[in-house]
Design brief:
By secondary structure, the chain is of the alpha/beta class. The longest helix is centred in the middle third of the chain and has 20 residues. InterPro entries: Aldolase_TIM, NADH_flavin_oxidoreductase, OxRdtase_FMN_N.
């Protein structure tokens, strides 16, 4: 990676491997909630096309489960289900129509699952034995160590899913190694207590994620960029630390299978607000629940998910330490909202800017910033959009809905 000139604009094209991207703005993989019964519909096409039309250089479709038991939610697509392919081809076509690249995030939930048809109930697979409060409402109160034969099969499932994604027209892939999902569980010393070759020191704890990454690279060949989403910190005592992330980044760079790191943070089951910052999403989540038992459980759990102070670019200081440690391309996520933020991230030698809530509120923001019409976002980081992962209507910005209603 060549050093980014401080005068270079986030709006200029750049190359990630052999793929030319029209700018450095990446729409983050934010779970859409638009696959009722496990099959996405036309709403997924409309959801992602607006980000491409709004000027993002890369649009990432979220959370493609690599097998049936890799799902967190019932309304989540599985990449080995033939029924998803037709809609995904429409998604990539819609994204390409506006000159953007299409990326698909591949993931496995591990113990972070509420999938009602999980074949291993009442256990979910993870790195080690333990209780699983995350899955309690779905009758999955325990987690157990994933056996080596299942680890091998899961790596194959990643490869199969990656090939299917490319067949559907995706230009890039993202492997989720953060936020407390399966790979994150294996990498976290708080969850990985194994005594076999998949546990112990960091290199061993990374063995499974690295093996899956290698299988994906072998499956899609050298020309498809692969993004790795990696935690800077888990955000709770005993979890993965910044030092772990720095060493993990060095290992990933040395392996040579990944094209880009997206550095993030937080652990959905333990420290979700470390990822989002700002007002807790638990109150709006309680408000939209239709199940009274779910309402009660979320209400009782509310104290464990307190508000967390928000500041713009809240991962920047940690990410700069990773930037100093490796030469491979890195993109930054986390509270990047204003045009001034864009310039700061570029000045600090990052290669891409990853936007989630900001673009959910204003899909056209890249074009608006590029034309100079405005330089700040209207997103207030209220986190109400996060609660809508459980909604039948999928993820929306409630503020936009309210504004439209008032204007009608």
């Amino acid at each position: 990676m060549s050093k980014v000139n401080t005068e270079k604009s986030v709006f200029e094209s750049w190359k990630l491997g052999n793929l030319t991207l029209k700018n450095r703005i990446i729409k983050a993989a934010t779970f859409e909630g638009l696959a009722q019964g496990g099959v996405p519909d036309e709403r997924l096409v409309q959801f992602h096309e607006k980000f491409a039309a709004g000027g993002a250089g890369v649009v990432t479709v979220a959370y493609g489960a690599v097998n049936e038991d890799a799902r967190t939610f019932d309304h989540q697509m599985c990449m080995q289900d033939d029924r998803v392919m037709g809609v995904l081809k429409k998604v990539t076509s819609a994204i390409h129509k506006h000159g953007a690249a299409a990326s698909l995030q591949l993931a496995h939930c591990g113990m972070q699952t509420r999938y009602s048809k999980l074949s291993s109930k009442p256990f979910s697979f993870s790195a080690s034995w333990g209780l699983n409060p995350y899955g309690l409402l779905a009758g999955i109160p325990f987690m157990r160590p994933m056996p080596e034969k299942v680890i091998e099969q899961t790596c194959d499932d990643y490869a199969i899913s990656a090939k299917r994604a490319v067949e559907a027209g995706f230009d890039m892939l993202e492997l989720h190694m953060g936020h407390g999902y399966l790979f994150s569980q294996f990498m976290s010393p708080a969850y990985n207590k194994r005594r076999d070759k998949f546990g112990g020191n960091l290199e061993n704890r990374m063995r499974f994620p690295r093996l899956a990454l290698r299988r994906v690279r072998e499956a899609v060949g050298p020309d498809v960029p692969i993004v790795v989403k990696l935690n800077l910190q888990d955000g709770f005592e005993g979890g993965s630390t910044l030092d772990d992330c720095i060493e993990a980044s060095k290992i990933i760079e040395q392996d040579g299978d990944a094209s880009l790191l997206v550095v993030t943070g937080g652990f959905s089951a333990k420290s979700p607000m470390y990822l989002f910052r700002g007002p807790s999403a638990i109150k709006p989540l309680i408000a939209i629940q239709k199940n009274l038992i779910a309402k009660l459980v979320y209400t009782l759990a509310a104290k464990k998910f307190p508000d967390m102070p928000f500041k713009e670019m809240f991962f920047l200081d940690d990410a700069k330490k990773v930037r100093e440690a490796v030469k491979m391309p890195i993109a930054l996520v986390g509270g990047i909202k204003s045009l001034a933020n864009f310039k700061t991230v570029m000045h600090e030698d990052f290669d891409g800017i990853v936007l989630g809530r900001t673009l959910i509120h204003e899909p056209d923001l890249p074009k608006i910033y590029e034309t100079g019409e405005q330089s700040t976002s209207g997103c207030i980081s209220c986190n109400r959009c996060v609660a809508h992962i459980d909604s039948d209507d999928g993820v929306i910005c409630p503020i936009n809905v309210e504004m439209a209603s008032e204007a009608a």
